[in-house]
Amino acid sequence: MSSTHDAGPLIETRGLTRHYRVGPATVRALDGVDLDVQRGEFLAVLGVSGSGKSTLLHLLGGLDTPTSGSVQVEGRDLAELKSYQRTLYRRTTVGLVFQSYYLVPSLTAQQNVALALTFQGTFGQERRQQAAEAIRRVGLQGRAGHRPGQLSGGQQQRVALARAIVHHPPLLLADEPTGNLDRATAAEVMSLVEQIHRELGTTVVMVTHDEETARRIADRVVRLRDGRLIGPPT
């Protein structure tokens, strides 16, 4: 775990709210969240299903926009960005890992990772070298030429993690990254996330329902309930 962080928060949310209309009802997925995440911090967000964890992550990742309030990353208010600016933000600043792997079945592991670099405008030998380095970092150099269907669930999630970090984003957002894995494989993937956080200095925000793992590897743990942060930060 990190012991020191650079001055100033990477993420600041103030009164962050996201409401949805479901028929005549209003669902308050997030309801006034104030949260700072320091640069280089590993933050775990705990909560049961429906507590607002994924909604928070989608807002931090620029995948959704708030009903009210603000979310600032590196001093930029994401709600004020145009659609193309949010896309650029996701390509340059954020790495995203989900419970599902979202790999292209027809591409090899290394090609899946290299595809992310294409969106960054990186091509040729540089792209191949960066993709190979990311694959090596997650320990899959021996599986680089395998397609997703030839890989285990844990190996596919490692590819997804390599794809998320290949462009060295300052922020890694992980949404239940071990939700589809058995306990032993989940522990391996979480150790890898911790290693990336430590070696690259990446700020990590991970949402999970696994309190034991969260408290073991994160610098700090917060809890969401019914769209609100509850209790003092730990």
Précis, in short:
The protein is an alpha/beta fold and 234 residues long. It has helices at residues 53-60, 83-92, 109-120, 124-137, 153-165, 183-200, 211-217, and strands at 9-22, 25-38, 42-46, 68-73, 76-77, 94-97, 171-175, 203-208, 220-225, 228-230. The radius of gyration is 17 Å and the shape is globular.
Structural key phrases:
single chain, alpha/beta, 6-stranded mixed beta sheet, Rossmann fold, 4-stranded antiparallel beta sheet
Report what the structure shows.
This protein has 234 residues and is α/β, with parallel strands linked by helices. The protein has one domain: Rossmann fold. Helix content is 35%, strand content 28%. The chain is built from 7 helices and 10 strands. The strands form 2 sheets. It has a 6-stranded mixed β-sheet, sandwiched between helices. Strands 2-1-4-5 form a 4-stranded antiparallel β-sheet, with helices on one face. α3 crosses α4 (124-137), α4 (124-137) packs across α5 (153-165) and α5 (153-165) runs parallel beside α6 (183-200). It is globular, with a radius of gyration of 17 Å. The model is unreliable at 1-6 (pLDDT under 50).
